[in-house]
Design goal:
This protein has about 400 residues and is of the alpha+beta class. It has eleven helices and 15 strands.
Length: about 400
C-alpha cells in the first residue's frame, strides 16, 4: 500500500467540482459535487442521533434500499436539519437538478449538508450551484482539493487522503475527503466523509467493510461530546480498476480493509486535530486491557474528558485527571497496577507507575505536552487488548467560536 497525493478524484473515473452558491457564506465556495463516470456500489453510515437531518434520511434510503449512486452534492453553511417536509423536498429537488443536468437517476444522487441547524435551505441557490458545477467537473487533484475546501464550516483546512494497492493484479486507488471541527463525538460526529474507490467489490462486502471500520476510526474521536444530526460517511466503488469483483473475504478483501483503515484513520485524526479552537491533537492509547471493548471505553473516557483536554491546552502534567477519567469509564481495573506515560516529538516520559507518581521533571513534562501532537499512554496490565482514541485540547477559542456560531 502506498500513500499518494489527492482525495476523492484520485480513483479512476471520479470527477469533482466546487462553486460559490451563496447558501449562507459570502465570498467563498460552499457547494461541492462528486461524480463517477460509471454507476457505483454505495455504502453509508450515519448519525446515531434520534434527530436526523433530511440528507441523512435521503441517503439512508439510497444506500440501504437502492445500493447504487453516481453523484454526491454537498453544501456547507446550512445543515438542512429540523426542517420538516420542506427540508426533505429540498433533497429531492437537488437530486432532480442533478438528474436533469447529468442524466443520472435522481434516486442515485446522494446529498449532504453541514452548518446551522433549523434554517431552511435556499433551493434556487442549490439548483444554480448544481448547474454551475456540472460543466466544471474534472478529475484533477486540484478539483478534488477545491471540493474538499467547499464543504468546510469552522474547519481551518481541507482534509484529504488517498492510497493505492494491488487487487487481482490491478492497481486500485482509494481516496477520501472529510470535514469536521465541532459537535464531534464518538458514534459519529458533526462530520461528513466521502470515500471513492475504483475497486470492483460486492455491495454486501462494501457495506460490511465500511461499518466494521467506522468502529475503530471515526467512532474513536471526540472534540466536544456532542453527537450531530448530520453525520454521514459515504463510500462509492465504481469498479473501474478492472479487478475481478471481490465477493468473498479473501486476501484481496483484507488488503482493501487495511487501505480503508489507513484512509479513515488519517481523516479521523485530521478532524480531531482541527477541533474548534484546538492547538493540539490529543491521542490516547490504552494498552494491555482485558478486552477490546474495555480498551475502547477507557481511551474514549480520557479523550472526552474536558479536564484532560484543558490540561493539554495548559501543558500541565496533571495526571490525576487522567486517572479520574479512567475510573469513571465503567471499566473495572486495579489502579495500583496502572502505568501512565506522556509522549510527543519532544520525548516520552513515565509519570505514574503502580499506583503512585514517579519522580519527574515538570519542565520536561511541559515541553512534551507543548507539541502540536500529544499522546497519553495508559498501560492497564490486564490483558492483550488495546485501542486508540483521538481528540484535541480545549481552548478559550472553542467558547468564542460556538458562542456566536450562527452569526
Amino acid at each position: 500500500m502506498e500513500r499518494i497525493q489527492g482525495g476523492v478524484t484520485a480513483a479512476k473515473g471520479f470527477l469533482a467540482a466546487a462553486t460559490s452558491a451563496g447558501i449562507k457564506y459570502k465570498n467563498r465556495t460552499d457547494m461541492a459535487m462528486i461524480y463517477s463516470e460509471k454507476p457505483c456500489r454505495a455504502a453509508g453510515t450515519f448519525t446515531t442521533n434520534v434527530v436526523k437531518a433530511a440528507p441523512v434520511i435521503w441517503d439512508r434510503r439510497v444506500t440501504e434500499e437502492i445500493g447504487r449512486a453516481q453523484a454526491v452534492v454537498v453544501n456547507s453553511g446550512i445543515a438542512n436539519a429540523c426542517t420538516g417536509q420542506e427540508g426533505f423536498d429540498c433533497c429531492r429537488e437537488t437530486a432532480k437538478e442533478v438528474e436533469k443536468n447529468l442524466h443520472v437517476l435522481a434516486d442515485e444522487v446522494l446529498v449532504a449538508s453541514t452548518g446551522v441547524i433549523g434554517m431552511q435551505m435556499p433551493v434556487d441557490r442549490l439548483r444554480a450551484g448544481v448547474r454551475a458545477m456540472v460543466p466544471a467537473l474534472d478529475g484533477s487533484v486540484e478539483s478534488g482539493h477545491a471540493a474538499a475546501g467547499a464543504i468546510l464550516t469552522t474547519d481551518t483546512h481541507e482534509k484529504e487522503a488517498a492510497v493505492q494497492f494491488e487487487a487481482g493484479g490491478k492497481t486500485v486507488t482509494l481516496g477520501g475527503m472529510c470535514k469536521g471541527s465541532g459537535m464531534i463525538h464518538p458514534n459519529m460526529c458533526t462530520m461528513l466523509a466521502f470515500l471513492t474507490t475504483d475497486l470492483a467489490i460486492s455491495e454486501e462486502l462494501l457495506r460490511e467493510a465500511l461499518r466494521a471500520d467506522i468502529a475503530d476510526t471515526y467512532n474513536m474521536i471526540s472534540v466536544d461530546g456532542d453527537t450531530s444530526t448530520n453525520d454521514t460517511v459515504l463510500l462509492l466503488a465504481n469498479g473501474l480498476a478492472g479487478n475481478e469483483e471481490i465477493t468473498e473475504k479473501n486476501a484481496e478483501y483484507e488488503t482493501f480493509c487495511r487501505a480503508l483503515r489507513f484512509v479513515n484513520t488519517q481523516l479521523a485524526k485530521m478532524m480531531a486535530g482541527d477541533g474548534e479552537g484546538a492547538t493540539a491533537l490529543l491521542e490516547v492509547k490504552v494498552l494491555h486491557a482485558a478486552s477490546k471493548e474495555a480498551a475502547k471505553a477507557l481511551s474514549k473516557s480520557v479523550v472526552c474528558s474536558s479536564l484532560v483536554k484543558a490540561m493539554i491546552f495548559g501543558h500541565d502534567a496533571n495526571f490525576g485527571r487522567i486517572l479520574c477519567a479512567l475510573g469513571y469509564s465503567g471499566v473495572g481495573f486495579n489502579p495500583d497496577r496502572i502505568d501512565l506515560f506522556f509522549e510527543s516529538t519532544s520525548g516520552k516520559m513515565l509519570i505514574f507507575r503502580d499506583g503512585v507518581a514517579v519522580s519527574y521533571s515538570e519542565e520536561e513534562a511541559t515541553r512534551i505536552l507543548s507539541e502540536p501532537e500529544v499522546t497519553i499512554i495508559a498501560d492497564m496490565k490486564m490483558g492483550d487488548a488495546e485501542a486508540t482514541a483521538w481528540g484535541c485540547d480545549l481552548s478559550y477559542d472553542y467558547v468564542k467560536i460556538n458562542a456566536d456560531y450562527r452569526s
